[in-house]
Amino acid sequence: MRCALVDTNVLIGYLDPDDAQHDRAVRGLEETLGKQTTTWPVIAEAAHILGRRGWRFQEALLAMIEGGSLTLAPLTEADAPRIRALMSKYRNRPMDLADATLLRVAERDGIDTIVSLDRDFHVYRAAGIGALKILPRS
Predict the structure, then answer these.
(1) CA-to-CA distance for 1 and 60, rounded, in angstroms?
(2) How many H-runs (helices) and E-runs (strands) does the chain carry?
(3) Closest CA to 96 of 72, 118, 78
(4) Which residues contact 24 (CB under 8 A, 6 or more apart)?
(5) How far is Cα 56 from Cα 127, in angstroms, rounded to an integer?
(6) What is the pLDDT of residues 95-126, one digit of tens each?
């Protein structure tokens, strides 16, 4: 089954219709084939930002997980060295923890597609994959 990773900004834009990136976020998720996956650090980051906009947005985020439209990729202690190495490699951007976990999962699980509105993923390279396919397409 095909899979696409989902970044923080897409979740925020998708869930908040007043967000400036709402239409792009919706389009990006609509372009995915297969399941949509993210990590707990992405959820924590999105929940923190959405919390400033109101509880209903956080509730909708958690409902995506409960309803199965968004799955969570597991992370363990074994992933920490590579996450740290990625954050060190891209420290001049700088790469945050959420982005590092997404890139780590891409490498580990062979996922070559990400839904992101950040320009950072145009720079990042996943070991064994190279440049990720970024949705939404321009």
Answers:
(1) 25
(2) 6, 5
(3) 118
(4) 13, 117, 136
(5) 38
(6) 999 999 999 999 999 999 999 999 999 999 99
Asked whether the beta carbons of 37 and 3 are under 8 A apart, the reply is yes
| Strand ranges inside 14-131, DSSP E | 35-38, 71-72, 113-115
Q: Which domains does the chain have, with CATH numbers?
A: 3-135 (3.40.50.1010)
Q: Which tens digit of pLDDT belongs to each residue from 53-86? A: 999 999 999 999 999 999 999 999 999 999 999 9
Alpha-carbon distances of 16 from 7, 27, 76, 96, 116, rounded to whole Å: 15, 14, 31, 23, 16
- Given a contact cutoff of 8 angstroms between Cβ atoms, the answer to whether 9 and 21 are in contact is yes
The answer to whether residue 44 scores a pLDDT higher than 90 is yes
Q: Which amino acid is at 55?
A: W
Please state, as a whole number, how many other Cβ atoms lie within 10 Å of the Cβ of residue 117: 20
Indicate the DSSP class of residue 70: S
